[in-house]
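Hi R.,

Here's the chain you asked about this morning:
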Amino acid sequence: SSYITANMKVIDHGVGNTNNQHDAGNIFSGNIAIKIHGSYSASLPQKPFTFHTLASNGIDDSDVAWFNMPGEHLWILQATYNDKSFVRNTLMFDLFRQMGHYATNSHYCEVVLNGSYEGIYFICEKSWRC
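And the predicted structure, written out as tokens:
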């Protein structure tokens, strides 16, 4: 599938605080190009997405740093449909990191798409496989 442009906002009021989809994007608010990611996983009810952040001109890529992750413009919103425990991928990343290796940075988030709640995802760098 091909990318479509969209507007995205990221809201994070911190641990223990409520985030509301109508709040202003306090972490990020801007344009992205997004598409469904994967082959088998794209057939599941919770779709994974690949996206890249765009500069204010809506064309050029723009690196964004969030959730203590380094600046990047290519990202994956990895669906958790096949991981009901919400720990499988992040546990492996953490273990690999503790063994002294680089592991993909990731952060859990909730996704609302066109006003519809899509569930819990984790966002990670696309430059590394996650």
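Helices lie at 88-98.

Let me know if you need anything else.
M.
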